[in-house]
Specification:
Structural class: alpha/beta
Radius of gyration: 51 Å
Low-confidence stretches: none
CATH superfamily of one domain: P-loop containing nucleotide triphosphate hydrolases
Strand content: 5-15%
CATH architecture of one domain: 3-Layer(aba) Sandwich
CATH class of one domain: Alpha Beta
Largest sheet: 8 strands, mixed
CATH topology of one domain: Rossmann fold
Distance between the termini: 175 Å
Number of helices: 27
Number of strands: 12
Length: 596
């Protein structure tokens, strides 16, 4: 029982005479302290202090007993009490302290709690989507000390778009001390240049990037992009070789962008074509001057022949058709005729494998020719092949505010040829690769009043191929042209550039028919068949126009081609089948005629 105040005062007053053990029992029960007894003798004070030092601390014993009593169940609260106990008693370590036991117990509790936490976390980890950065980072936020941190870092890095600066910055902020942080920084430094190269889609730029940046973090993407673009470029060169200029191809080779073997393997070039490309300027110096021979050629249709006209808008390939016919195996061009110089030019360019430049807008000339059946030298089909620029034809139809058009607008000399006495054969030329063609021409509008210099202006128009050909058929049907149409034996279609339609060649006609039916059958073929019935045109085919495919051969870059006479021979046969044969007079026949 605690001392009363009187008892406590008496104890303090008699502190030097009372039994020492009795005094220490009161001190231990905290009824009094050494500080309460300033008159206590030094001897007694030293004895009591030594005794206190050697006896267990009651408070420490109480705290430990409380910890020990609850140690069976390992909880966060128990761990907190253990840590507080160690923190309080570790430095002074009273007699009989349990600090070392507390440390052992702390390790046991932490291990068990860690195991419990790991078990709980593992359940959550099993639900994480390792392909979602959001899911991974949410788990890391919930379990900042997770044992899966390295896995999370790798997975988030794999999910990071390496070409997105914002995502890279977010990664660095989240994993600033990770092994991928510096890699992310290096990528961000290279990102601007790579983005510009990538967005340009320029094969030369991407190739130079690969060559000049062997350590780029985007090297793999750049190489893959380069290979894909090279393959696409090879396919395009193979498919549209004539659109590539000579210098472009030679630059590709000289810079190492493409090797000769690559171009040969892709059938873009052959060794012979490459040699021609390299000597093109020298070869062309030996060819005739096209403009000079155009100017020297005339438009004269020899009587007694069938006049063969080729209709179409510019760039459809009408001149290419004539080039092919000039070297067909069963056609002979009279180079001494009115258009002989131009015919000679067509032949030489065809043999060299070069297409000639576009003809002037109002150019018209004729090639006098004869078609012989192989093995039959006694009769021939005599024709005048009419070369007529498509520019004037298309401009007069398209750029005509009054919507009036006649054969009078066909170009210099064309009208007279059409009205001539000869039988006619019409071919309508179609380009399957172009629905519309942009036109421009320079025309004389007058002369300067002071200097007398000619004044020109440019005209522009866009020709829709189907509309122009429909108007052409309507023009054939006009009553004012009936005298011309009465002399027409056949009207047929030629689809040029057939080498682009399909490969192999035997499939081209099916492709041509499909295009023709889709674009021309309704508005053009129907009215044209009625016209043919009206004037007895195409009687061998029951008034139906025929469709022919045409190609000069295989085209290569630099507008070089390897001539193949197959289509030209077939077209020559078609002309032969649509015209009348004239028997060649033998010496005896000529003698009998002279006698008669």
């Amino acid at each position: 029982m605690p001392l009363t105040e009187l008892q406590r005062k008496t104890l303090i007053d008699k502190c030097n005479s009372i039994n020492i053990n009795t005094l220490m029992s009161y001190i231990q029960s905290k009824d009094v302290t050494l500080a309460d007894m300033p008159k206590l003798s030094a001897e007694r004070r030293a004895y009591i202090e030594q005794y206190q030092h050697n006896m267990p601390n009651a408070q420490e014993q109480s705290e430990w007993n409380e910890i020990a009593a609850s140690s069976a169940v390992k909880t966060e609260a128990l761990l907190t009490k253990i840590k507080a106990y160690i923190s309080r008693w570790e430095s002074e370590r009273p007699t009989g302290n349990h600090v070392d036991e507390a440390r052992t117990l702390q390790n046991q509790v932490e291990a068990e709690l860690s195991a419990q936490q790991a078990s709980i976390e593992q359940g959550d980890w099993n639900m994480v989507d390792v392909f979602s950065a959001q899911s991974l980072l949410a788990h890391l936020q919930k379990y900042p000390h997770t044992t899966h941190r390295q896995e999370i870092e790798e997975a988030v890095w794999n999910c990071t778009n390496k070409e997105n600066a914002q995502e890279l910055q977010s990664f660095v902020a989240q994993f600033s001390g990770s092994m991928h942080a510096m890699e992310a920084q290096n990528i961000m430094m290279a990102l601007n240049e790579w983005s510009m190269v990538k967005s340009s889609s320029n094969l030369v730029e991407i190739t130079n990037y690969v060559k000049n940046h062997p350590q780029s973090p985007f090297l793999f993407q750049a190489q893959a992009m380069m290979m894909s673009m090279k393959q696409n470029e090879l396919e395009n060169m193979k498919r549209n070789g004539e659109k590539y200029e000579k210098d472009t191809i030679l630059d590709y080779i000289s810079t190492g962008l493409f090797s000769e073997s690559e171009l040969f393997a892709a059938n873009v070039l052959t060794p012979q074509i490459l040699d021609t490309l390299r000597q093109m300027d020298k070869i062309k110096q030996c060819l005739p001057n096209v403009q000079q021979n155009i100017e020297s050629s005339k438009a004269v249709c020899k009587e007694g022949c069938t006049d063969v006209f080729f209709w179409g808008i510019p760039s459809t390939g009408k001149t290419c058709v004539l080039m092919g016919l000039s070297c067909a195996s069963n056609i002979h061009i009279n180079l001494a005729s009115a258009g002989g110089d131009y015919g000679s030019t067509l032949m030489q360019y065809t043999q060299a494998g070069f297409t000639i430049p576009a003809t002037p807008g109002n150019f018209v000339t004729t090639l006098e020719a004869s078609i012989h059946t192989p093995g039959d030298t006694e009769q021939a089909h005599h024709v005048n092949l009419v070369e007529m620029s498509g520019e004037e034809f298309a401009f007069q139809i398209v750029n005509n505010p009054n919507h009036e058009f006649s054969f009078e607008d066909m170009g210099a000399g064309a009208t007279e040829l059409l009205k001539g006495p000869n039988r006619k054969l019409f071919f309508i030329v179609i380009d399957p690769t172009a629905d519309r063609v942009s036109l421009n021409r320079k025309i004389l509008v007058g002369y300067d009043g002071e200097t007398g210099e000619p004044k020109y202006e440019y005209q522009y128009a866009t020709a829709n191929q189907r509309i122009v050909l429909q108007k052409l058929v309507d023009l054939f049907s006009l009553e004012e042209n009936k005298e011309i149409m009465k002399k027409v034996d056949g009207i047929h279609f030629i689809m040029t550039k057939s080498d682009r339609l399909a490969k192999p060649a035997h499939m081209r006609m099916d492709a041509a028919l499909s295009i023709f039916k889709a674009q021309y059958e309704g508005n053009i073929l129907g009215p044209l068949k009625m016209l043919c019935e009206r004037y007895n045109i195409n009687t061998p085919t029951k008034f139906h126009p025929e469709l022919f495919t045409f190609s000069l051969g295989d085209f290569y870059p630099g507008k070089i081609f390897k001539y193949n006479s197959t289509d030209a021979d077939m077209l020559a046969n078609a002309i032969q089948n649509s015209t009348h044969a004239i028997k060649n007079m033998t010496w005896w026949g000529k003698f009998k005629n002279a006698v008669n």
